[in-house]
Design a protein that fits this description.
The chain is mainly β. It has one helix at residues 3-20; strands spanning 38-43, 68-82, 87-93, 100-101, 104-106, 112-118, 144-145, 153-165, 180-185.
Length: 186
């Protein structure tokens, strides 16, 4: 046999041996449902894409990392739903949103993020990696029962947005972030 053939034969033996070493340990099955649910979605009773305006604050309100200010309530609701599902919850999406910075939204102003909370004060984990508690999504968002009967089921999820300092001192300027969401039904 020629020397290069020995090298090729050895390479085939090594490749075959490495394939045998990678045995399958299990399988992950992923399931889901796309429903024909029809609802009117709104933010603060307006359109599905609406603006939440935080108050103008002074930089002195955000002194020190972890300081918060300007808490402003907002809601995401569904109405006129025709569904057999019994509950809903908004799920905040990374795609279409401003950059997530440690589970908060980066603003472009030095040291300033926007933090989203549930109406009970729980921090919404935008990365979606929170331990799933009963009655909540993986983001810590409460699952809300739909009330009423077809074709007029409705529900509202309430939240708070606020400024959050991620540095010892913050810059100044206009703040604008985008937070994309999808309504999930259970």
């Amino acid at each position: 046999m020629r020397p290069f053939m020995h090298k090729i034969s050895a390479a085939i033996v090594i490749a075959t041996a490495s394939l045998a070493a990678h045995a399958v340990d299990g399988t992950v099955t992923i399931t889901g449902t796309v429903s024909a649910t029809t609802c009117t979605v709104s933010v603060n009773g307006g359109s599905a894409s609406n603006t939440v305006t935080l108050p103008t604050i002074g930089a002195s309100a955000l002194v020190g990392s972890g300081a918060v200010a300007g808490a402003t309530a907002f809601s995401i609701g569904v109405s006129g739903c025709t569904t057999s599902q019994s509950s809903m919850a908004p799920y905040f999406e990374a795609a279409g949103s401003s950059a997530f910075n440690g589970g908060r939204l980066a603003t472009g102003v030095s040291g300033v993020d926007i933090q989203i909370l549930t109406s009970t004060g729980g921090v919404v984990n935008l990365s979606g990696s929170a331990a799933v508690a009963s009655g909540q999504t993986g983001q810590g968002v409460p699952v809300v029962p739909l009330s009423g009967a077809n074709p007029s089921k409705s529900a509202t999820s309430n939240f708070v947005a606020r400024y959050y300092s991620n540095a010892a001192s913050v810059g100044t300027g206009a703040v604008s972030v985008a937070l994309a969401y999808t309504i999930t039904y259970q």
